[in-house]
Write a structure and sequence with these properties.
The chain is of the alpha+beta class and 367 residues long. The chain is built from 12 helices and 8 strands. The relative contact order is 0.09.
C-alpha cells in the first residue's frame, strides 16, 4: 500500500492509512470501470457461477499465452522459409532475364518445319503475362500499360517491422516511359495477425515528357476570333496499372466534429480495400507462383477452387449473376480492415464480399 500512497497527491498524504486505502481502492475501481464492465458482470453472477467463470478466464489466459508463442514461432518459420525461397527466386530472375541459359539450349539453326527461332533472351513479357492471367490484376492493366510492363524484370516483397507491414519492389529495365529503375509500394499495417491497414505509400514515378500513362492529354482548339491561336492543352487522370503507385490516402487532420457523409467514407474504404487487395494478390499469389500464372495453370486452379464453393441448384440454368459472384469471392479472399480516423475507434470495417467497386477514371487515349 505504501507504493500506492507515494503516488497520491500531497493533499492525500495527511489522510489516515485507512482513508488512503479507501482512496486507492476508489481509484482502482474507477480504472477498472474505464477498462471495461466485466467486473460488473461478475458481480451479478451467483458465487458458484462466478468461480466457474474465473476458471474459464484462467483458461483463456493460458490460451492467449500459447497464441502469442504461436505467432512468434510462425514469424520465425516464415522468415526461415523466405530465406530458402530466395535462391530459387534468384535463379528464376536469371533465366527470365537471359542472364543464364538452361541446359539443352543451343544456337544451332532449327529445321524449317519448326517454329521460327526467337532471338530474344530469357522469357519475354514474363511478368506482364503472369499478371494478366490473374483476374484482379488483369482489370488494372490497360493496353497502353503493356508497353511499359514489358520492361518489368522482377517483383519482390519483404516484411517491414517499423512500422509493421510489407513492401513490394518492382524492378524495371531502362525504358522510354519513366526514369525509375525501381518502383516500390509499402503497406503500413496496425496489426500483422489480423490485417488492419493504416496507409499505403508508393514511389513517385518520374515520367519522361509526354509518356505518362496515368494521364491523358486533351487539346482544345481556341474559339474563333480568339487572340490566342494556340490550342488549349490540359491533362486528366485516367485508368492505368501505374495508379497503383499513387494509392488513396486517408486524411490525417480530421476531427470528430468534421462533417463527412457516409458515401464519401464508403467510397474511400472501397478504394483502400481494393488497393490492399491488389498488393496482397501480388505478394501472396503472383510472386511465389509466377511461373504457374505465366503458363495459365494457376488461373485454372484458382478458378476451380472458387467454383467448388458455389452450390449447384440442379436446374441446369446459369445464373446471370454467377460471374459477378465469382469475382466478388476472388476479391473477398484478401479482405482487410482499414485503420482510419474517419471511423469511430480508429478502425473502419469494410463491407465483406459485396463485390462493390469504386468507379475508376476512364482508360487513357492520348489525343
Amino acid at each position: 500500500m505504501s507504493d500506492h500512497a507515494a503516488d497520491l497527491p500531497a493533499a492525500a498524504a495527511a489522510l489516515s492509512a485507512e482513508d488512503r486505502a479507501d482512496l486507492v481502492n476508489a481509484l482502482k475501481d474507477k480504472l477498472q470501470l474505464l477498462a471495461g464492465n466485466h467486473v460488473d458482470v461478475l458481480e451479478t453472477l451467483a458465487p458458484n457461477v462466478r468461480k466457474r467463470v474465473e476458471v474459464l478466464r484462467d483458461l483463456q489466459g493460458q490460451h492467449d499465452e500459447l497464441e502469442t508463442k504461436f505467432i512468434e514461432e510462425r514469424a520465425q518459420l516464415e522468415a526461415k522459409y523466405q530465406k530458402l525461397y530466395e535462391p530459387l527466386y534468384t535463379k528464376r530472375y536469371e533465366i527470365v532475364n537471359g542472364e543464364v541459359e538452361v541446359e539443352g539450349i543451343t544456337n544451332e539453326p532449327v529445321p524449317a518445319e519448326d517454329p521460327p527461332c526467337n532471338s530474344e533472351k530469357g522469357v519475354p513479357n514474363f511478368w506482364l503475362t503472369a499478371m494478366k492471367a490473374n483476374d484482379i490484376l488483369a482489370e488494372e492493366i490497360t493496353e497502353r500499360d503493356e508497353g511499359a510492363l514489358k520492361y518489368l524484370k522482377d517483383i519482390k516483397w519483404c516484411k517491414i517491422d517499423n512500422p509493421k507491414g510489407f513492401k513490394l519492389e518492382f524492378y524495371f529495365d531502362s525504358n522510354p516511359y519513366f526514369k525509375n529503375s525501381l518502383l516500390t509500394k509499402t503497406y503500413h499495417m496496425i496489426e500483422d495477425d489480423e490485417p488492419i491497414l493504416e496507409k499505403a505509400i508508393g514511389t513517385k514515378i518520374e515520367w519522361n515528357p509526354g509518356k505518362s500513362l496515368t494521364e491523358k492529354i486533351l487539346k482544345k482548339k481556341p474559339k474563333k476570333g480568339s487572340k490566342n491561336a494556340k490550342p488549349i492543352i490540359k491533362t486528366e487522370k485516367c485508368e492505368s496499372f501505374f495508379n497503383f503507385f499513387n494509392p488513396p490516402q486517408v486524411p490525417e487532420d480530421l476531427d470528430e466534429d468534421d462533417d463527412i457523409d457516409d458515401d464519401t467514407v464508403e467510397e474511400l474504404q472501397n478504394l483502400l480495400e481494393h488497393d490492399y487487395d491488389l498488393g496482397s494478390t501480388i505478394r501472396d499469389k503472383i510472386i511465389p507462383h509466377a511461373v504457374s500464372w505465366f503458363t495459365g495453370e494457376a488461373a485454372e486452379s484458382d478458378f476451380e477452387e472458387i467454383g467448388d464453393e458455389d452450390d449447384d441448384d440442379g436446374d441446369g440454368e446459369e445464373d446471370e449473376d454467377d460471374e459477378e459472384e465469382v469475382q466478388s469471392k476472388r476479391r473477398s479472399k484478401n479482405n482487410v480492415q482499414i485503420g482510419s480516423n474517419m471511423q469511430t475507434g480508429g478502425r473502419a470495417q469494410p463491407d465483406r464480399g459485396n463485390g462493390q467497386r469504386t468507379e475508376r477514371p476512364p482508360e487513357c487515349n492520348q489525343q
